[in-house]
C-alpha cells in the first residue's frame, strides 16, 4: 500500500442538492477524489456537488448499486488507482469526519474491509425507522446462522481495499449492494471488522425507508441476496 495511502470516496446520490454540499465539506482532506454518482437526479445535485469540489459521474438507471458501479468504473479509468475506497451516503445521515476511524484498521494492516456500524454507535432519535432496525437485525442474524458471517449492521458507511473490492466482482444494482459486499467478503476470506459510527436524521425523505414500497422492496432484496449466496 502506498504511503500515504490513496483514498477515494464514492457517494451515490439521488436528489441530494440540500445535503451533498454538507457531506462533501466534512470529508477529511486526506481523500484524493470524491466521486458523486448522480443517479438521474431531477434537482441540482450535479451542480452543487461539482461546485463543492466533487467529481460527478452520471448514471441514468435508478439503483443504489448501479450508481456505485458507475462510480467504480470512473475510478478504474484513472491512471493511478486508489488503495482504499470509502462508500458514504449523500443524505448527511453519516458523519464524514469519522472516516479516519473507519479506515484506521485497514491502515494498521488488521482488516481488508471495515463496516461503520450504527448498531454499535449512537443513533439520533428517529434517524432509523423500526423496519430499518428490525431489517438490519434480521439480515445480520440470518447471515450469522446461515453463513457464519459476523456483522451487526448493513451500514452504507464502509471502507474496503480497492483491489479486494474488485476481486469481489460486485453485480447488484440496487438494494442488495451492501449485503452482497459483506457476504462475498466473508466467503472470500477477507479480513473484516466493524467500528462504531454515529447516525443522524437525514436531510430530505429516504428513498427506501420513506415509502412502504421502498421498505418492502429493500427487505425482499436483502433476504433474496442472503439465500442467493448461501
TrEMBL record:
Superkingdom classification of source: Bacteria
InterPro entries: Glyco_trans_2-like, Glycosyltransferase_2, Nucleotide-diphossugar_trans
Domain Glycosyltransferase 2-like: 9-161
Any Pfam family: Glycos_transf_2
Annotated protein name in UniProt: Glycosyltransferase family 2 protein
Native organism taxonomy: Bacteria, Pseudomonadati, Bacteroidota, Cytophagia, Cytophagales
Amino acid at each position: 500500500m502506498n504511503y500515504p495511502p490513496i483514498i477515494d470516496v464514492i457517494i451515490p446520490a439521488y436528489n441530494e442538492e440540500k445535503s451533498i454540499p454538507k457531506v462533501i465539506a466534512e470529508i477529511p482532506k486526506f481523500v484524493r477524489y470524491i466521486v458523486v454518482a448522480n443517479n438521474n437526479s431531477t434537482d441540482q445535485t450535479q451542480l452543487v456537488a461539482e461546485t463543492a469540489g466533487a467529481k460527478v459521474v452520471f448514471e441514468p438507471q435508478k439503483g443504489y448499486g448501479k450508481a456505485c458501479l458507475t462510480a467504480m468504473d470512473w475510478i478504474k479509468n484513472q491512471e493511478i488507482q486508489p488503495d482504499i475506497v470509502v462508500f458514504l451516503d449523500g443524505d448527511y445521515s453519516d458523519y464524514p469526519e469519522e472516516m479516519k476511524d473507519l479506515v484506521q484498521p485497514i491502515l494498521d494492516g488488521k482488516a481488508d474491509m471495515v463496516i461503520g456500524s450504527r448498531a454499535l454507535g449512537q443513533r439520533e432519535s428517529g434517524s432509523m425507522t423500526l423496519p430499518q432496525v428490525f431489517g438490519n437485525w434480521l439480515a445480520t442474524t440470518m447471515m450469522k446462522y446461515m453463513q457464519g458471517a459476523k456483522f451487526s449492521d448493513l451500514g452504507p458507511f464502509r471502507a474496503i481495499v480497492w483491489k479486494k473490492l474488485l476481486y469481489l466482482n460486485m453485480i447488484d444494482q440496487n438494494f442488495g449492494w451492501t449485503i452482497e459486499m459483506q457476504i462475498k467478503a466473508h466467503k472470500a476470506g477477507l479480513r473484516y471488522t466493524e467500528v462504531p459510527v454515529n447516525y443522524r436524521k437525514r436531510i430530505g425523505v429516504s428513498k427506501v425507508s420513506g415509502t412502504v414500497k421502498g421498505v418492502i422492496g429493500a427487505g425482499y432484496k436483502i433476504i433474496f441476496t442472503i439465500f442467493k449466496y448461501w
